[in-house]
Design brief:
Largest sheet: 8 strands, mixed
Distance between the termini: 41 Å
Low-confidence stretches: 1-12
Strand content: 5-15%
Shape: globular
Helix content: 40-55%
Mean pLDDT: 92
Number of strands: 10
Length: 323
């Protein structure tokens, strides 16, 4: 399958033109933002591990990227802690066998359209929180504990505009007291940003060998996204409807530029938020996360809560000790 040409056109927009010798992990990369992020990195010569729930869809994405020597797939459900543990073990074993750690993690996977009614995973955790937040926290915990992140690695948390459109406050993280699909999504994205900033505080305290950064994709829609055979094939109706949003939205290929800058720009030192220049669309620029994201008490409380659920927590000191 041919690669998406726009990935080539923007390959060197941020960071080094040539990423040969570097290695990245992109979760949720079988389509959407994750796919375009992975495609761009591989186009620039990086080795990329892409993850997702469906092995078939990951294979299709890898084929579409067209870099068989650079792209490998790892299917697992980020919302299930046992699967996260198994995936992390595979990644750690692979790093030990090759000596190749990761220069960046793009924690992209997530549910954008939550179910109408509250659901729980096999771990008893509300599904949107488990998928969008807890699974990534647990994966990061296991990878940092095994010290497979290279010095100065970037950890990119995927934020959103959604928390600013609600009264999300994380007092009831799993929405046991009242669930709506919108609140589930908005709270999960606020939680992601809170963890991104708390991660920055903890990484700095451990010596600053890892950079924790948040990226917002703006308003990125499927109907404005280029067709990629076998990966992204929106209907004509979807394209027609989304074309009405062209002045306020952008394609997912453009939305991916924020997380691409976050994971490849060597000038970023951690604690930054990368956003579209015009709020919902545009080139990636320095911006800000939701104001609650910077509350250290909230950050510590959520960090510890996730640790209690995941049975592990990110250990940036392990990377500092190795370096």
């Amino acid at each position: 399958m041919p690669r998406n040409d726009r990935a080539d056109a923007r390959a060197a927009e941020f960071g080094p033109r040539d990423l040969s010798g570097r290695r990245y992990l992109v979760t949720g990369a079988s389509t959407g933002l994750g796919y375009f992020t992975a495609a761009n990195l591989a186009t620039r010569g990086a080795r990329v591990v892409i993850t997702g729930r469906s092995a078939a869809r990951l294979d299709a994405a890898a084929s579409a990227i067209g870099k068989p020597g650079l792209v490998t797939t790892l299917p697992f459900d980020i919302g299930e802690l046992d699967e996260v543990r198994g995936a992390a073990d595979s990644l750690v074993a692979g790093a030990a066998g090759t000596g190749a750690g990761f220069d960046g993690l793009v924690l992209n996977a997530g549910v954008v359209h939550p179910p109408a009614r509250r659901e729980a995973t096999s771990d008893g955790v509300e599904r949107i929180f488990a998928t969008n937040v807890l699974g990534h926290y647990a994966l990061l915990g296991r990878l940092t504990g095994a010290a497979v992140l290279r010095e100065d690695a970037a950890v990119v948390w995927l934020g959103s505009l959604a928390p600013g459109l609600t009264r999300a406050h994380l007092q009831d993280v799993q929405l046991r007291g009242g669930y709506t699909a919108w609140n589930a999504y908005a709270q999960s994205k606020l939680a992601t940003q809170v963890l991104g900033m708390e991660g920055d505080r903890r990484a700095r305290a451990a010596g600053g060998h890892v950079r924790s950064i948040v990226a917002h994709p703006g308003y990125s829609t499927g109907g404005l996204t280029p067709t990629v055979a076998g990966v992204h094939e929106p209907s004509l109706a979807k394209r027609a409807v989304d074309s009405l949003l062209v002045f306020a939205a952008q394609g997912k290929d453009d939305g991916a530029r924020c997380q691409l800058r976050a994971v490849t720009d060597p000038e970023l030192r951690g604690g930054e938020t990368i956003v579209p220049a015009y709020v919902t669309k545009g080139r990636p620029v320095l911006g800000a996360s939701h104001w609650r994201s910077y509350d250290p008490e909230l950050g510590e409380r959520l960090w510890n809560y996730c640790a209690s659920l995941a049975g592990v927590e990110p250990d940036f000191a392990a990377i500092s000790a190795r370096t």
